[in-house]
Predict the structure.
Amino acid sequence: MIATLAFFMLQSVPIRISGDDLSDLTFLDAQIGTRRIAELGEATHGGAEFYKLKLRIVRYLHERRGFNILAIESGMLETGLAALRRAELTDREFMTTTVSGGMNWREMLPLFAYIKSRPQLRVIGVDPQFSATEVLDYTHDLLKPYRPKLAAQVRQRLGEPYQFMAKTGDPTEFRTARDDYLRWLKALEGHVGALRWKPEHKAGFAVLTQGLSGLRRYWDYEPTTPVIDRFALRDQIMADHLLAQVGKEKAIVWAHNGHIGNGIGYRVMGDHVRAARDKDVFSLGLFARSGEWREHWSNQTKPWDAAPDGLESRFSKRYEASFLPTSVFTDAVSAYEPENGGRISFVPKDRFDGLVVVDRLSPTNRP
C-alpha cells in the first residue's frame, strides 16, 4: 500500500491555486488534445479554492486553447439575458442576477469580472430552474418594446411553478395549476415566435425561445414523481440545452461534480453530453484533502470530512493542488462530496477523465 501511494504522489502534477502565470496548466494540452468540451467540476459549491483554481483553468482554456463558450450551472434565461447586457452590469450584479445563492460568493466575483473583460467569451446558463429573481425583469425588458401587456404578464406569471410545486399534497390542485401554467407557456412561445425581432434583439429572443422550451419540459411532471427522476430530467434538459447552444464550438462547463462526467445512481448532464459527443469530452473532477467548507443553505462552516485513506490521500501533500489522470486508478475509492451524499465510493476512471485534489480547502464568503 505504501509503495502504491508513493507511486501516485510521484506522478501527480503540481498546480497553483492562484496567480496570473498559467504555465503550470500546460499539462492540460496533452490531456484535452482535440476535445472540444471541457467539464470542470467541484466537490462542493462552498469551497473557496475551487473557484480560484477553476478561474485559472477557464483563463487557460480561453486564452491559450480557444475555448470561447462558458456554460455555467445557472438559469438558462437569466444567464443568457444578463450576458447580453454585461457591459452595463457591475461584477456583483452580473453574478447575483445569474447564479443561485449556493454559488453567490466573494470568490466567484473574479470570474464575472473576467467575463466582462473578455467580450469574445460567450456565457450561457444551462439550468431550467431559475437561479435569480431577475429573470422576471430581464424577460419583461426584452418583451416590453414589442408587447407591453404581454411583458407585464410574463413578469407576473413566469415564476408560478415555485408556487404550485408546493401543492403536491393535493394532486388535483397541483395538476390544475400545472396544466394552466403549461398552456400559458405554450401560448407565450407562440406569441414570441410571431414577433418581428429587431436585429439587436435577435440573440435575446433566441435565449428566450430556448428557455421557454426548457421550462415546459422541466415543469411537466406529476406530483408523485420521485425526486431522483426530477434530478435526472433536470440534467437531461441541461445537456440538451448545452449541446444545442455550443454546436461544434469549444466550450467550458462550470458545474458541480455531480453534473459532469458520469453520474452515480442516475444519468447526469455529463452522461448525456458524452453519449452525444463522446470523443469531444474531457471531464475534470475537483476534490480536497482537508480544511473547511461553507454549507450554503445554513451558512455554517463545516469541517471537510475526507477519509484518511480515500481518493484524496493519493495526491501529494507538497502542493497547493495536484492533478492525476483517472487511468492510474483501477479500483473503487471513497471521496468526499458533501452535496452529493458525503463520503461516496466510485471507480475514478468510470466517472471522470482527470482529477484535481486541493490540499486544503477554506469556506467561501458572501460578497
